What we know:
By secondary structure, chain A is an all-alpha fold. Chain A has 8 helices and no strands.
Amino acid sequence: MSGKQLEEFKRTEKMTRMEYLFPVRFAVGWMFLDGGLRKAVLKPAKLNPNSASFVGGKLVNFLPHAGPFKGLLLMTLENRSLDVTFLTVFSYIEIIAGLFIIIGLLTRLAAFGALVMSVGFAPAYWLGSTCEDEWQIGALLTAGSVMLMLTAAGRVWGLDYFLYKKLGDRPIANVPILKWIKLW
Amino acid sequence: MEMERVTIIGIIFAILVVGWILATGQWAYGNVVGPLVNYSKIPQLKITYVNAYENAKGTYLILNITDCDGPDAYPASAPMMEIYNSTWHVFLYSYNISNDTVKVIQAPWNENKKDYTNWYSGFVVVLGSEAQFQLQLPFHLSPGTYYIQLYTPAVSSKVLAKQTATFTIS
């Protein structure tokens, strides 16, 4: 390595070209956007508790090996209105977080939402009759969400470019903990 | 100074993500230190409650059954049930199970997917759900202790051994 190359290497070794993050942004974002659209838009019967397609029935499947989450699941399942409200809100958060990650708007906040959802379906991680399906999905989405959140991936090839240029860094609120979570 | 902060945050999140992935992988599949498990591969029914008494028509059998392992895409079934003691036994096939079931009470957490019986599959139980099946059996049982065995197709004898329960007729 020549002296000039070494100098260039030292200058750039800790730099990430943000353009390269777009495939991950799209993949993580689309997983959530697709999940939300399927339930809330493409087949609304999935959110109708009187329909055979109601996804609340899937929460029952998580129960046997849900470990410490079992009590919370049972409480949700035994309270039908809570179950429907939870799934409806969850679906719309999936749509908003997924869409925002793809277009790079409020990317850090959206990725934080994606992270919470990825970790939140841990009770289903044990499901996967042919391979380790749910755990693999959850693990990759968790890692992807953390990466997008830490790198503020929407500042390049995303609408956060304009927000950051105009407003700089902005936390959710200037209070402990929340001040660490940036909006974009 | 700025680089140091980035490094610290990077290390913290690296530890959290690596820890989360390894811990949940071990919890769900034992894929870090073993033994490897996959609870969603083979169905397993469990009898959580059993009671029986004699009446004018025969024997009234009450069974609570849950499906505690297996795939989520389709329910587990038990197309055959055996009732036995040391000197006697009877097999109830799927059509007997279906015909003799007079009531099915769903657990309060069962959602739109209900447990049921039919002529082809006998007892049909959705993963994670539970139901109480009440059967009016057309025969009397003498006082004593009896065993119930549920048979699920294509599962090992180890799994079948767990699909048992005991009841007493007094």
